[in-house]
């Protein structure tokens, strides 16, 4: 959020792992925060025609596009966007390279934890609870099915801290992690 606010005059592409994360952050959380820049999303549940339309809009307009890896392949964003932000780790090196646009070293003094903002948002808009729980569980499933268990081992992750970072007061029960 701080990065977006610091670059309001930029075109930004943000990558998340799952459709549910994209929908939660774009359709619900960011739109309620109103960061001062338009937000749009791109994910695999959208028809190809709509995805191409959003890409065309990004070529002409300034907004933040939050996407799954569906935008990493087949669409050339290198000359279209100013910044590429990878919130989640891609599933493999090839996906990382496809997502890659610019490498940016964050100014650690400007970074603020999101959990307080998200937690307050979830209290104010209780209807978002179900969406954020679904996004959390789907992300955990994505990590769980990764082949490279040396890097993607759900049992080694700080799950409680991740849940808190999404604004959740309690970590949702995940059947396959018990």
UniProtKB/TrEMBL annotation:
Keywords: ATP-binding, Helicase, Hydrolase, Nucleotide-binding, RNA-binding. The Q motif is unique to and characteristic of the DEAD box family of RNA helicases and controls ATP binding and hydrolysis. One of its GO terms (molecular function) is RNA binding. Coiled coil: none annotated. This is ATP-dependent RNA helicase. It catalyses: ATP + H2O = ADP + phosphate + H(+). It comes from the Eukaryota. Residues 1-163 form the Helicase C-terminal domain. RNA helicase. It is an enzyme of class 3 (hydrolase).
């Amino acid at each position: 959020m701080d990065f977006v606010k610091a670059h309001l005059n930029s075109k930004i592409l943000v990558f998340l792992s799952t459709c549910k994360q994209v929908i939660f952050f774009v359709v619900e959380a960011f739109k309620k925060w109103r960061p001062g820049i338009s937000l749009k999303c791109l994910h695999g549940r959208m028809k190809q025609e709509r995805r191409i339309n959003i890409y065309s809009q990004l070529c002409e307009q300034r907004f933040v596009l939050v996407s799954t890896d569906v935008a990493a392949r087949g669409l050339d964003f290198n000359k279209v966007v100013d910044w590429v932000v990878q919130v989640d780790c891609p599933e493999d090196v090839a996906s990382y390279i496809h997502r890659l646009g610019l490498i940016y070293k964050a100014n650690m003094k400007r970074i603020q934890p999101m959990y307080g903002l998200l937690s307050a948002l979830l209290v104010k808009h209780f209807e978002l609870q179900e969406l954020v729980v679904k996004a959390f569980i789907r992300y955990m499933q994505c990590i769980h099915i990764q082949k490279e268990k040396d890097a993607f081992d759900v049992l080694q992750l700080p799950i409680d801290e991740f849940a808190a970072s999404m604004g959740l007061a309690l970590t949702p029960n995940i059947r396959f992690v018990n």
